Amino acid sequence: MSSSFKRRGTKKTSASPGTISPASISSTDSDGLTNSTTSSSSSSASSLQQHHPRTLSSSLLPGTRPWTSNLTVTSFGLREMDSFLFSPGGGGGKDGGGGGGQPLQTLILLEEDRLTDDLSRALCRYWCAEGVAQRQLVMMPSLLPSAEESLQLLDDSDGDRVDGHINNNEGSTPEELHGFVLSLPRNLHLDKLRSKSTTKKQSSSDTTTSFSADERMSNHGREAITAIAEEDEHDEDDDIPDDANDHGHRDPRIATTTSDEGLINAWQYRKSIQVARSGIANQIGSDVGQVAGAGDGIYCHSYNLSQRMWDQFTPNDNTDDDGRHDNPLVTNTRIIDCSRSFITPKFAGDTSLHNQHQGMALFCTLWKHLQSELSTNRNRVIRLFIHRLPVGQGCIAMPLLMAKIRKDNLPVVVLVTIRPWKWLTTPTAKNNNTNNTIDTLLSLRNTADTALSLDSFSSLRTPPPPEFSLLQGILTVHKCASSTTAHYTDTVTNKRPLADRFGVKRDGRKVTVQLLHLPPEEYSKGGSSTGGGDRSGGGHTTTTAIDGGIRKDQHHHGHDNTSASAAGMGCSSFGGGGPSLEF
């Protein structure tokens, strides 16, 4: 019975063509079976991904990182703006210390000062330069056709254009936007990476020329290193100036870990030294290919406002020193013509029809250009920078544009600058009801995820108190959406930012945004700047408390000269004819 069972089993095993005996499978067949199974599973997974669309991952988008609440953020270009206003906190790199960024599909509204736009222009230069450095596309619509026609509209009050804002030269010309592109600040991280690449090339050429071919063959094809060019003992971050260490921080997904870098004190155990001693040639070409574009590991670059990024590239042959045959200022910037959105026949009746018609035309033009760019390359972020948007048309076009961007889940971020004081003083606004004019401005603010305004001290009739001698202006946060703030704030206070007013410092090289705090004694000038013996915000008239670095006024919220407001140290900004600051 046992023999028949064996025979039946043998016959069954041999007769079944699709059955394989475990003993008959060799090692090579096993490997082949494993490979076929793996390939089939991978092919099925790839086919599943092709049939089921998925949300764009931040790993596919240059210059982005994943964030909480399923958000993808990109840097503003200034580290303080990332950490204070846009998703502050987080892991961050070892040199970044945290900081988030502007989430995709969000809108930033920046209100310029009445008499000077230096501070707001500097922030816009940071924002656009970061897009160029990350190999993102910076799109800038031109709302006026040319400078000559804009000058003619100043003298022609009965021109063909229907909106008073355009007649008052509201918007930007192609010449102005081209000059703005040329004024983008110099990328200091690019200079550092270029110097490192040059040093590696020099040391590699000096090392390889000192060995013969026989020595390489005896070392099994590797370069037998006999003399090692030691690196400097100072930290690598010393090559970048102080402002670079303040603003630039690496992406934690790309930055090397502490264990890979080796010991800090014992320089001979550093990774670069060990690689050199092992005889493995450094892959300089791969480093050079990532110098000027995405993949260099820098999430927020550092810039020098006193120098230009354009000077870092050769404009003649449109080729930079790093092997990239393109100039990022040429390939990553687009100046689009949207001036025809405002050339419409006049309507008889209320001027609100003008704003509605032109706002819809502006939305259609912007959406057409976005679709054209995303059809060619969807795997990169588009930064839409609208300089001096007319408020009347903007409150119609921007809600429609942002709703369309979020509906289609597009990798787009928007920065808009406006001049609210000009909207409130135009002839069109004066003819309408004052309440409608203010409602239009508030509607545009409500559309934005973050609404900011900059008040420069240079536009004040009287100088600020001595405590503000180190500052050049005040940055006011009118609105900050809950999706863009999460870590520095408390959920019981509706996720408000760390403060609603920040001090702005501007020197020749950089802009610094900082929290307002009690100044040192040497800046008080021996007492209060408003008269009396107490310092501004101090003395017995005001009871203060320090909570997490924020000075809070517990009793006085009025406009008397002896008290200071909660986050502004006596600064307050009012709308109407122009910004004002009380001390």
TrEMBL record:
Subcellular location: Cytoplasm; Nucleus
Cellular component terms per the entry's GO annotation: cytoplasm; nucleus
Keyword Membrane: no
Chain segments carrying region Disordered: 1-64, 157-176, 193-257, 518-570
Biased composition (Low complexity): 26-47, 200-212
One Pfam family in the UniProt entry: PAXNEB
Feature: compositional bias, Gly residues: 528-540
Domain of life, source organism: Eukaryota
Alphabetical UniProt keywords: Cytoplasm, Nucleus, tRNA processing
Feature: compositional bias, Acidic residues: 229-243
GO biological process, one term: tRNA processing
Biased composition (Polar residues): 12-25, 55-64
Biased composition (Basic and acidic residues): 213-223, 244-253
Bias (Basic residues) ranges: 1-11
Pathway the protein contributes to: tRNA modification; 5-methoxycarbonylmethyl-2-thiouridine-tRNA biosynthesis
Keyword Protein biosynthesis among record annotations: no
Main subcellular location: cytoplasm
Family membership: Belongs to the ELP4 family.
Name of the molecule in the record: Elongator complex protein 4
